[in-house]
Every structure is written in C-alpha cells, then in structure tokens.
Amino acid sequence: MLRNSLYLKLFVGFWLISSGILASWLLVASYLDSQPRQVVEINKPGPPPRFVLRLIYQLQNLPESELPALLSEQQSKRMDIYLIDLQGRDMLGRTVPDIVQLAAQQITPQQRSTVLKADGRPPVAGYAIYRQEQGLLRVVLQFKAQRHSVLRALGDKLWLRALLAVLMSGLLCYLLSRLMTRRLEQLKHTAGELAAGHLDSRIAVRDSGGDETDDLARSFNTMAEQLQRRINAQKRLLSDVSHELRSPLARLKIALALAQQAPSQRPLQLQRIEREADRLEELIEQLLSTQAANQVMDEHIDLVTLLQSLCADADFEAHSKERGVSFSTDLAQALVTTRGDLLRKSFENILRNAVQHTAVNSRVQVQLKTVANHYEVSIQDAGPGIPESELDRIFDAFYRVDDTRSRTSGGYGLGLSIAQRAINQHSGSIRAENTAAGLLVLVLLPRYRES
C-alpha cells in the first residue's frame, strides 16, 4: 500500500526525515559523551583495570635494564606512560608535563592512586609502585585525546551540531523531493516535446499499478495519444477533402474548357457542369453535417415509427439490387429526444451502408429492443465484414475499407461519420463488430422519461 500511495510516501518520508534528524543528533551526542568512558572506568572505586595491574606488576618485577624497553613498548596512540622517581624525573629522561607532575605528587604511601581530570583535556591516572632498588616510584598514565578535531569542535560548540542536523535534513529532503518530482519533470519535458510537434512523445511508465504519479503519467499518455489521433485525423480529413474536391473541380474545368472550344457541345457540357456542381454541394453539405455543433434536443420522436418508415424505403430501393431490408420489434412505442431530422439522416446512412455491402439475395436485419434505460437498434448485414483492426476507423470521415473505390461505388465515406456525430449528440453510442453473418452495427439511445 505504501508503494502505491503518494500520500503515504510523503508521510513516511517526512517522518523518516524527522527521525533522521533526531537520530543524528542523539548519535553524535551519544558518541561525544561516550569518549571519556575509558577514563571513568579507571576512576571507579576498586582495583585498577586489568591492563594497568599487568603493567604495574611488570614495572615492579622486571630488571631495571629492561624498564626502558617496556615503557617504550607500552607507548601507544591511546596513552603515554611515565615512570617518575621521588625527584620528579622520568626514567626515560623525558620532560614531564605539569599535569603528570601534579598527579605524581599526589601519590604517597597513604594514597596509592589518583585520577586528575581537567576541562576539555584527557584524564591522567597515577599509581604507586615499589621497587627494591628505588623504593617508591610513580607510574602515571596520560591518556591522549581520541577524537578528531572536527568531533572535538562538535562537542565544544552546539551551533555546529545544529548545523550538522540542518545539513543532514536538507540532504534527506533534497533526495525525497527529487524522488517525488522526477515524474513531474518527465511530464514537463514530454509536454514540451508535444508542444514542439513531436506527437509521438510519451512518458515511460508501467501499464498498471504504482502511485498517483504513475496514474498521472498514464493519463497524460492517454491524452497525448488522443491528441495525436485527433491531429492526424484532422490532417487526414484535410487531405481527403482536398482529394474529394479536386476531382469534381477538375471535371468542371474540363467541361468549361470544352464548352468554350466547342459551342455546339455547350448544352451537354453545361449539364456536366451542373452535375459536378450538385456533387460539390452534396459533399460540402455532408462535410458541414460531420462538423455541426451540438444542438439542443427539444423534440421527441418514436423510433418504432421512424425505423418502420426508413426500413420500408430502404427495402424498396434494395429490391433493385436484389437485396432486402427487414425490421422487427416487440415495442409498441420507443420515444427519444432529438432535434430536426438528425436521427433520420443517421439511420438512413447506416442502412444505406448496410445495403451497399450485404450479399446479393440477402436481407439486412434491423431490430429494436429495450436495454436497461436505453433503446438498442441493431443493423445486421450479410456482407464480408471489416478487418478487426479497422473496426474503430469506419466512423472516421472519408474512411473506406477499399481506398480504390470510386465515389460512384462507395460514396464519400462520410455516412457513418455523420451518424456517429449525431448519435453522440443524443448522448448515445454507436459501435460495430463482426459476426458470423457479417457486420453488426449497434446503436444505443437513452429512453425518454417524462418528469
């Protein structure tokens, strides 16, 4: 659930940041406070630590000639060892620091050990030893500072520790913000690519799952795909319109030229010009129908009556092509809201397309029934159908399964596009699917309900 929720990511992220700041502060404080503990152990009541007892035993029992070697061997980064006689001299002839002299002076037959601590300085521990030749001697252990200069500065200055915590929180917040805004930066870059005309630009995102940023990326990709499809459709529409207009205009120019060159054929050419002008007018009217704005649906129509009339007319026309159209329904009335003759034109175009492609000696089956709160109109032909990859495109303007078909055999390819736009204006839907018999077109229209 955490991986799929941006809110939880932010919550846990800021929680971890706060915890990291607190933990870093506590760890630094704990580390700084723990450094003197090795001295505290020496300062505890009771016998000295084991390594000190071993050192004292060796210093008391080794021959005098071996003492310098032992002292040199025991020197380490952790401490310096001084063996001081009653005159305050070191057995190795080294200069004795004041703090070491002070510790040695406190060693008496009555006080056999001492520990000195100075603010900001490592502790000094002194112990009494007895040798047969020299009598009372003092071994003094001067512990060295173990902390790095930076750590000493952190231990001495609170503002440095606060600065460390601020820098650490800033680093964590930066990493978190980069993680959270990475998808937004991709969105910004891809949007810029789209604006520059690269319509195939997409955001790389998994197909499903993820958090809200992944959902946003998928929605953006969907929008980009629709935008690319619409722009390509507009380009294709412009190309198709140019192509469709070019042919009748070319014929008009030829007919006009022939009329000018051969006055005797002028009446014939004028008829040709009139036919081409009518075709241009028809094409322009259909184009305007596909691009018409939404209209207010303030009228009512009975689908039963409308389809009976349209199917009867289509059946009459289809007989000349050795085809037929049949209509069936169990409904007595099917009222829907409409405007003008939008639905009549829509179903006329669908029926004309079905009759055009149904097989010879077959019938187009039209059925009307109720589905939930809608009326469903199905138009089934007995034709060859449509390739599955082309089913969504048959409602595009100027679409033809066979691009080589002429205007005479195939029309302009605007009928189904006009029908789809009109059905959408009625808050309905239209789709096509292949069946065993041929192509099935399904239209859903919302039922009219009196308020």
Secondary structure layout plus pairing:
Layout: H1 6-34, H2 37-43, H3 50-61, H4 67-74, E1 79-84, H5 98-105, E2 113-116, E3 124-131, E4 135-143, H6 149-156, H7 158-195, H8 212-261, H9 266-290, E5 299-302, H10 303-318, E6 324-329, E7 335-338, H11 342-357, E8 363-371, E9 374-380, H12 407-410, H13 415-425, E10 429-434, E11 439-446
Parallel strand pairs: 6-8
Antiparallel strand pairs: 1-4, 2-3, 3-4, 5-7, 8-9, 9-11, 10-11
Helix pairs in contact: 1-6, 1-7, 6-7, 7-8, 8-9, 9-13, 10-11, 11-13
What does this structure look like?
It is a multi-pass membrane protein. One of its GO terms (molecular function) is ATP binding. Residues 240-449 form the Histidine kinase domain. With 451 residues, this protein is of the alpha+beta class. The protein has four domains: 2-35 and 150-189, no CATH class; 37-146, Beta-Lactamase (2-Layer Sandwich), CATH 3.30.450; 202-291, Signal transduction histidine kinase, dimerisation/phosphotransfer (DHp) domain (Helix Hairpins, Orthogonal Bundle), CATH 1.10.287.130; 295-446, Histidine kinase-like ATPase, C-terminal domain (Heat Shock Protein 90, 2-Layer Sandwich). The chain is built from 13 helices and eleven strands. α1 (6-34) packs across α6 (149-156), α1 packs antiparallel against α7 (158-195) and α8 packs antiparallel against α9 (266-290). Residues 36-45 and 403-410 have low confidence and may be disordered.
